[in-house]
Amino acid sequence: MSYNKEWLCWSSNELNDKIVEKILTTCPVRNYAKGEFIYRQGEKKDVCFLVLKGRIEISSENEDGQRKVFGIREPRCFIGISTLDGSPSLVNAICLEAVEVAVVSAQDINKGDREVLLYLLLSVIQMNKQLTSQLNGQTFDDVENRVENLLVTLSATLGKHEADSVVVTVPLTHQLISEMVGSSRVRVSQIIGELNKSGELVMNRSNYKLLKKSAL
């Protein structure tokens, strides 16, 4: 299996307390309800957002209704940086639950200190790595490997180690996995079923468990 550890599709805690406090001293806070869009494909903005509470899906959709999920963002992550120049957004940012964000404008960034600018730059670098890794997976890996890479990566970054397994507590449905890896839900369900039968994986709607003996 071609395990790519750079695909951190479920991101959180990219900023420390000091940076968050600096941003909150000058930037307004905005709240969104579950299901609301923070921004949509094609929408022009000259702001980005720092996630403070909640969970946000970053995705795109074509004219036929086909969806691609690029990642999930949780607190202490920036989103929407690519629209700071006023260009149209290429993706949607959809609230999966109640969300609170700080609205960071281009003017705020121009007046900001070097440390905040550094974290913005690091966020851009990380997002570029994620997108490149996803593109490599879509190009060179089959669907089974893409599903396995996703599960292993999440267990490495978000997993809680137990005696014989790693437990990952995220709401990861077959539909969401299919939209992340670029396949059909039916095919993803087949792969998950095979992993469950082999004893390598135990999965439900709120969490999944990988046996430590298995590297998938």
From TrEMBL:
Record has DNA-binding as a keyword: yes
KW Transcription regulation (keyword) present: yes
UniProt xrefs under InterPro entries: cNMP-bd_dom, cNMP-bd_dom_sf, Env_Response_Regulators, HTH_CRP, RmlC-like_jellyroll, WH-like_DNA-bd_sf, WH_DNA-bd_sf
SUPFAM superfamilies: cAMP-binding domain-like, Winged helix' DNA-binding domain
Keywords annotated in UniProt: DNA-binding, Kinase, Transcription, Transcription regulation, Transferase
Matching Gene3D superfamilies: Jelly Rolls, Winged helix-like DNA-binding domain superfamily/Winged helix DNA-binding domain
MF annotations from Gene Ontology: DNA binding; DNA-binding transcription factor activity; kinase activity
Residue ranges constituting the HTH crp-type domain according to the UniProt record: 141-214
Protein's organism: Desulfitobacterium chlororespirans DSM 11544
A matching Pfam family: HTH_Crp_2
CDD domains from the UniProt entry: CAP_ED
Domain Cyclic nucleotide-binding: 11-111
Listed transmembrane segments: none
One GO cellular component, as annotated: cytosol
Name the record gives this protein: cAMP-binding domain of CRP or a regulatory subunit of cAMP-dependent protein kinases
